[in-house]
Amino acid sequence: MSNEECRSIDATLLALGSLSELKFTPLGPFAHGRQEYSLPRFTFRDPNSGDPIRLGIFGGIHGDEPAGTLALVQFLRMLVAEPAQAADYLIHAYPICNPSGFERGTRVSAAGVDLNREFWKHSAQAEVQIIERELREQHFHGLIQLHADDTSDGVYGFVRGHTLSEHLLKPALAKAGKILPRNINAQIDGFAAQDGMIYDAYEGILAAPPQIEPMPFELILETPHHAPMDQQIEALVVAMRTVLDEYRRLMAFAANL
């Protein structure tokens, strides 16, 4: 493994450690061999919201896709600098969902498992069990996952869950598409696609608990892995900002009906 592939979790998250506006919670611990790990969770809340919109954002479940992790770090720094962007929200951010894979620069964990095929299958993987517990206990109104695809030359996304998901992904991709090209192929990652949106997904991916009510919206944002890293980060941050703005607007509109 080269030095470029070996990443420091502490160094990656260092920029968030001094931000008192963020609450840090290590979830775990668990071990791979003799190495102990935890899943970092950062919480940011609009203090003026009595009943906030609960949003979960997940990055780095594939350890060889650092763009999502770095974008989520940048996004949290932006929220601290511009708290109005998070008005009405309680955001739980999980920037490194596969810490052993992140360190090694591998898609799979140190156990050799693709964690994003293990959800809601009674998985023995500690990372999956921790995230499943969060998904059950936090009662999220929405979920966003951040990924990078080494077979795509443009940004795209998956929609799941609430029918509102499509109405959130569409403007998010439009904004991200101003930074990186959008993948408009009729088939992406083996799935039928329309205007950069996929309505199916692999079995066992990180998702809301089965039969949960009310059903949250679920979005998966994908950047082209081989694009410049700064552009991937910018595209993901812009997309996340757009989702926050659009969902807040739609909820305010629904409340006034």
Instruction: Report Rg.
Output: 17 Å
Under the CATH scheme, which architecture would be assigned? 3-Layer(aba) Sandwich
Roughly what percent helix? Answer: 25-40%
Contiguous helical run count: 6
Shape: globular
Provide an overview of this structure.
By secondary structure, this protein is an alpha/beta fold. The chain has a single domain (9-255), classed as 3-Layer(aba) Sandwich (Aminopeptidase). It has helices at 9-17, 66-81, 99-104, 126-137, 165-176, 229-255; strands at 23-32, 35-45, 53-59, 89-94, 142-149, 156-161, 187-188, 191-194, 197-198, 217-224. It has a ten-stranded mixed sheet, sandwiched between helices. A hairpin with a 2-residue loop joins strand 7 and strand 8 (191-194). Helix 2 crosses helix 6. The longest helix is centred in the last third of the chain and has 27 residues, at 229-255. The protein is globular and about 55 Å long.
